């Protein structure tokens, strides 16, 4: 039952209203609708920051050869350093939010991300870029799983995946804004502006989050709490009954992350090889990422209101078909832009939809741990993206072949999605009262 239906049903039945479904923190403080909306908007801002920050490095790389004499192919491990940090932060630091509260992890991670991103603007060598991007990844990894978990806790159960997708829609929005704003930012502040802008925004966002979010550990209603009470709640995901759902969830995250970081790391570098200017390539990347907003929200609505496995198969199958079409056609700016809107947009949509699926696969007491550990496993796939792209660039692979490779992980996601109904059945058996329909 939704929060806005409670009063109507109470008057109709002349019975006391049902318990408030909104989450409570220690100290008995409950979230009002206005504060919940403000919190969700600011949580979405964290994802906008992440998307802009991810795009900043890929947009800077083709400009650094002239500015600093650093070849684009030498940045493969710089991109990977961000992913290593994301995985380590997600697995080792983020689960602390299940014990000590979301706000501390979110605010500290957001502030540290801002400082590390500002520091990236001072780098002049590959080792310096690598160190700053590793620090950025650690901070983001600590923050983002708690943002996803808190958005799920603030959402009505029947709209959980959709609201989580709307919040995480900030990632493609940030990627799109970076691509569209890169030309004027670089013109006004040089390549350093690509890091100064998101770094300053992240520090201000941390202050706003501190003021808007309530402190304390979340109180999870219903179900046994022994996993959450343990010192290492993430270990519950590695044993029965949660191992199989976690394996399905993490496999799709890993395969989609491979595509997400392959494409968003190298797209502004690859497209000039198909005849586009650097500025036009940045704009195409921005438009393609922006399409992920609509795709992700639509796919999440299907996950909430239709069969979850087929909804994911449709998403990833369409994505694979778009990259196959690019591989089979000659470069054409208009046709490729439309196909990239489906393909790159689909990869970003996958990043929006899958955290929402986690809210159906796992109970609230394990949600931060599941998303955090999923981020760690996903990095195994994401680690392969930037080095794979660097190897293809070094080998002189044609742009259409480079982009056609992205069809393979998308097809693999279709295969894994076949196991989603069985993964949902595990939670139904473990918690018969859960509503997964």
Compute the average pLDDT. Answer: 81
Please bin the fraction of helical residues.
over 70%
Corresponding CATH architecture = Up-down Bundle
Order of strands, main sheet, comes to: 1-2
Give me the count of strands: 2
The separation of the N and C termini measures 13 Å
Q: How many separate structural domains?
A: 1
Order of helical and strand elements: HEHHHHHHHHEHHHHHHHHH
Major sheet characteristics: 2 strands, antiparallel
Computed over alpha carbons, the radius of gyration is: 21 Å
The fourth-level CATH homologous superfamily is MFS general substrate transporter like domains
**Alpha-beta classification:** mainly alpha
| Low confidence ranges | 1-29, 221-230
CATH fold annotation:
Growth Hormone, Chain: A
Verbal overview:
This protein is mainly α. It has a single domain, classed as MFS general substrate transporter like domains (Growth Hormone, Chain: A), CATH 1.20.1250. 75% of the residues lie in helices and 1% in strands. The protein has helices at residues 6-13, 33-68, 76-93, 97-100, 102-120, 126-154, 160-168, 170-189, 193-212, 226-229, 243-270, 278-305, 308-327, 333-361, 367-394, 399-404, 407-417, 420-430; strands at residues 24-25, 218-219. The protein is globular. Mean pLDDT is 81; it is low at 1-29 and 221-230.
């Amino acid at each position: 039952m939704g929060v806005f239906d409670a009063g109507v049903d109470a008057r109709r039945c002349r019975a006391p209203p049902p318990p408030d479904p909104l989450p409570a923190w220690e100290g008995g403080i409950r979230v009002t609708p206005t504060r919940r909306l403000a919190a969700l908007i600011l949580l979405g801002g964290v994802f906008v920051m992440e998307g802009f920050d991810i795009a900043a490095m890929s947009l800077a790389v083709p400009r650094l050869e002239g500015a600093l004499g650093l070849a684009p192919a030498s940045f493969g491990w710089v991109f990977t350093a961000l992913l290593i940090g994301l995985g380590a932060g997600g697995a080792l630091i983020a689960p602390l939010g299940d014990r000590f509260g979301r706000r501390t992890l979110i605010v500290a991670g957001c502030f540290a991300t801002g400082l590390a991103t500002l520091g990236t603007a001072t780098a002049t060598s590959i080792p310096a870029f690598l160190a700053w991007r590793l620090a950025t990844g650690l901070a983001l990894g600590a923050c983002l799983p708690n943002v996803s978990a808190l958005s799920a806790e603030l959402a009505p159960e029947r709209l959980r995946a959709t609201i989580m997708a709307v919040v995480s829609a900030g990632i493609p929005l940030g990627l799109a804004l970076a691509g569209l704003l890169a030309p004027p930012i670089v013109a006004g502040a040089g390549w350093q502006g690509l890091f100064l802008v998101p770094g300053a925004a992240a520090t201000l966002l941390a202050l706003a989050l501190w003021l808007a979010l309530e402190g304390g550990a979340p109180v999870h209603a219903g179900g046994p709490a022994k996993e959450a009470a343990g010192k290492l709640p993430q270990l519950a995901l590695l044993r029965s009954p949660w191992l199989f759902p976690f394996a399905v969830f993490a496999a799709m995250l890993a395969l989609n992350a491979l595509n997400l970081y392959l494409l968003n790391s190298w797209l502004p570098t690859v497209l000039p090889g198909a005849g586009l200017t650097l500025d036009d390539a940045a704009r195409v990347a921005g438009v393609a990422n922006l399409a992920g907003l609509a795709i992700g929200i639509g796919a999440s609505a299907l996950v909430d209101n239709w069969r979850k496995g087929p909804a994911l198969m449709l998403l990833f199958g369409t994505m694979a078909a778009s990259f196959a079409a690019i591989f089979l056609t000659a470069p054409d700016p208009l046709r490729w832009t439309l196909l990239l809107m489906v393909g790159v947009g689909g990869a970003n949509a996958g990043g929006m939809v899958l955290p929402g699926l986690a809210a159906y696969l796992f109970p609230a007491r394990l949600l931060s741990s599941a998303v955090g550990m999923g981020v760690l496993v996903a990095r195994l796939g994401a680690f392969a993206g930037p080095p794979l792209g660097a190897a293809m660039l070094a080998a002189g692979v044609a742009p259409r072949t480079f982009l056609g490779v992205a069809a393979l992980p998308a097809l693999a996601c279709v295969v894994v999605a076949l196991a989603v109904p069985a993964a949902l059945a595990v939670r139904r058996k473990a918690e018969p009262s859960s509503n997964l329909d």
